[in-house]
Amino acid sequence: WRCCFGLLGVEAGTGTSYNPEMRQGLLSSICQVTGYLDDCTCDVETIDTFNNNKLFPKLNKLLESDYFRHYKVNLKKPCPFWNDSSHCGIRYCTVKPCPPNGDSGGTESPSYKYSEEASDHVGECEEAKRLGAVNESLSDETQRAMVQWTRHEDSSDNFCEADDEQSPDAEYVDLLLNPERYTGYKGPEAWKIWNSIYEENCFKPHNIRRPLTPLASGRVLFPGHAFYRWLKGLCVEKRAFYRLISGLHASINIHLSARYLLQDTWSGTKWGHNLTEFQNRFDEVLTRGEGPKRLKNLYFLYLIELRAMSKVLPFFERPGFQLFTGNENKDRETKNQLLEVLQLTKSFPLHFNENSLFAGNKKEAAKLKEEFRLHFRNISRIMDCVGCLKCRLWGKLQTQGLGTALKILFSQKLIENMPETGPSYEFQLTRQEIISFVNAFGRISTSVKELENFKNLLRNV
Ligand SMILES: *[C@@H]1O[C@H](CO)[C@@H](O)[C@H](O)[C@H]1NC(C)=O
Ligand SMILES: *[C@@H]1O[C@H](CO)[C@@H](O)[C@H](O)[C@H]1NC(C)=O
Ligand SMILES: *[C@@H]1O[C@H](CO)[C@@H](O)[C@H](O)[C@H]1NC(C)=O
Ligand SMILES: *[C@@H]1O[C@H](CO)[C@@H](O)[C@H](O)[C@H]1NC(C)=O
């Protein structure tokens, strides 16, 4: 990215003031993410131009279709790993009895007050509960159509194991009614989720500390030397795994900063960009050099999912393939829109060459594939521990989407050899895999676009 610094105004529209030096620091840290990315020969400028001008508008339109906006998900699974998963019920917001012989003279029946700690958090918790709730309403038309969708799925040759989707608890959610944005879900609990994803699922031994890990006691912040030495020593696939997770994390944080709750009063709510929040996550100095690395990982994730989009084209091109919602005209239109997007991804000039990835001998590749699958399944189970339902919804969607992208990349030969007609026994995608995959890519594409918006904001403040 070219860095041009505009005049250094100070006031942001929202009344928060930005110190010019900090702003310049942030711009330069965004601008550090430039040129060639590690592990692939593609440059960020090419991605920005391609995504922001060509792909993003088309993809966004596609995701508004009836087929892609309805995602079936089970949000009721209990967390399999630990008990206290509810931020607001348990730790902060419980109502504790007041100690006896208070100064109320003893005439009242035992009164209950929020404990001091709790009352600090009550507002916060109510906010988090409200903002994190999932709007489950569906139009009548959709509800009637859903019966047909299920019938259609049952009749297609779908023998992939799909534990979540078959559960009676799984329900369709309208994604457009539940945008991914700031929810107030943060602090120790959110940190715990990400920590267990990184610590236990990224092939990392316990004795190697991630940079900036806030330890519960002592708050020692580890510099990254040992960590990056370890990362460098990994085989390219495992390194890729870590970078994908980090990219996903970065993307989610970009959405939270770009759709922050700026104002919440009786006259209405206002959502928008919060530069301070963005800065806290990505500024080079404030994050001790981690910010630019996170952004690079976001681009890496973008390239992987883009590659999967371009590789899956033959699967959707088959004449008999339908994106079924029951409305024939609309379904045909949605399919054409999807094919157009996929063809566009194919035209991207500097594709990531995944031959360098997953290219070991056959036996090794199969082993890695299985390891990846298990780790992804585990990460998706960790998502069941996310206390905020809306965050859980998007977390599950994006892990399933990324898992599907990898499944596609691991199955290229099978996809190339698919029969034009008739069922494909070797390679299948379920409705939920298709929806999560395309929506997950939509999220990353939006993040790349949002970076441009942040850049413009920083220049123009
Ligand atoms: C959760 O709590 C139950 C009892 O309430 C206990 O038996 C179980 O071991 C706990 N699980 C974990 C993971 O701590
Ligand atoms: C859910 O979305 C519908 C449709 O936009 C809206 O009418 C309803 O008020 C929403 N419910 C909540 C609780 O926000
Ligand atoms: C799955 O994640 C949990 C919780 O973080 C962890 O205890 C467990 O070791 C992980 N299992 C695998 C196979 O990675
Ligand atoms: C922006 O985010 C910061 C936290 O990073 C918060 O303290 C501040 O109040 C937010 N600004 C607005 C206008 O909401």
TrEMBL record:
<dbReference type="InterPro" id="IPR007266">
    <property type="entry name" value="Ero1"/>
</dbReference>
<dbReference type="GO" id="GO:0030968">
    <property type="term" value="P:endoplasmic reticulum unfolded protein response"/>
</dbReference>
<feature type="disulfide bond" description="Redox-active">
    <location>
        <begin position="388"/>
        <end position="391"/>
    </location>
</feature>
<keyword id="KW-0676">Redox-active center</keyword>
<comment type="similarity">
    <text>Belongs to the EROs family.</text>
</comment>
<keyword id="KW-0274">FAD</keyword>
<keyword id="KW-0285">Flavoprotein</keyword>
<keyword id="KW-0325">Glycoprotein</keyword>
<feature type="binding site">
    <location>
        <position position="181"/>
    </location>
    <ligand>
        <name>FAD</name>
    </ligand>
</feature>
<dbReference type="GO" id="GO:0034975">
    <property type="term" value="P:protein folding in endoplasmic reticulum"/>
</dbReference>
<dbReference type="GO" id="GO:0030199">
    <property type="term" value="P:collagen fibril organization"/>
</dbReference>
<keyword id="KW-0256">Endoplasmic reticulum</keyword>
<dbReference type="GO" id="GO:0016972">
    <property type="term" value="F:thiol oxidase activity"/>
</dbReference>
<dbReference type="GO" id="GO:0005789">
    <property type="term" value="C:endoplasmic reticulum membrane"/>
</dbReference>
<dbReference type="GO" id="GO:0005796">
    <property type="term" value="C:Golgi lumen"/>
</dbReference>
<dbReference type="GO" id="GO:0006979">
    <property type="term" value="P:response to oxidative stress"/>
</dbReference>
<dbReference type="GO" id="GO:0050873">
    <property type="term" value="P:brown fat cell differentiation"/>
</dbReference>
<protein>
    <recommendedName>
        <fullName>ERO1-like protein alpha</fullName>
    </recommendedName>
</protein>
<dbReference type="GO" id="GO:0007519">
    <property type="term" value="P:skeletal muscle tissue development"/>
</dbReference>
<feature type="active site">
    <location>
        <position position="391"/>
    </location>
</feature>
<keyword id="KW-0732">Signal</keyword>
<keyword id="KW-0813">Transport</keyword>
<keyword id="KW-0560">Oxidoreductase</keyword>
<dbReference type="GO" id="GO:0051209">
    <property type="term" value="P:release of sequestered calcium ion into cytosol"/>
</dbReference>
<feature type="disulfide bond" description="Redox-active">
    <location>
        <begin position="88"/>
        <end position="93"/>
    </location>
</feature>
<keyword id="KW-1015">Disulfide bond</keyword>
<feature type="binding site">
    <location>
        <position position="194"/>
    </location>
    <ligand>
        <name>FAD</name>
    </ligand>
</feature>
<feature type="active site" description="Nucleophile">
    <location>
        <position position="388"/>
    </location>
</feature>
<dbReference type="GO" id="GO:0015035">
    <property type="term" value="F:protein-disulfide reductase activity"/>
</dbReference>
<dbReference type="GO" id="GO:0045454">
    <property type="term" value="P:cell redox homeostasis"/>
</dbReference>
<keyword id="KW-0472">Membrane</keyword>
<dbReference type="Pfam" id="PF04137">
    <property type="entry name" value="ERO1"/>
</dbReference>
<dbReference type="GO" id="GO:0019852">
    <property type="term" value="P:L-ascorbic acid metabolic process"/>
</dbReference>
<dbReference type="GO" id="GO:0070059">
    <property type="term" value="P:intrinsic apoptotic signaling pathway in response to endoplasmic reticulum stress"/>
</dbReference>
<dbReference type="GO" id="GO:0071949">
    <property type="term" value="F:FAD binding"/>
</dbReference>
<feature type="binding site">
    <location>
        <position position="246"/>
    </location>
    <ligand>
        <name>FAD</name>
    </ligand>
</feature>
<keyword id="KW-0249">Electron transport</keyword>
<dbReference type="GO" id="GO:0007179">
    <property type="term" value="P:transforming growth factor beta receptor signaling pathway"/>
</dbReference>
<feature type="binding site">
    <location>
        <position position="183"/>
    </location>
    <ligand>
        <name>FAD</name>
    </ligand>
</feature>
<dbReference type="GO" id="GO:0005615">
    <property type="term" value="C:extracellular space"/>
</dbReference>
<dbReference type="InterPro" id="IPR037192">
    <property type="entry name" value="ERO1-like_sf"/>
</dbReference>
<feature type="binding site">
    <location>
        <position position="281"/>
    </location>
    <ligand>
        <name>FAD</name>
    </ligand>
</feature>
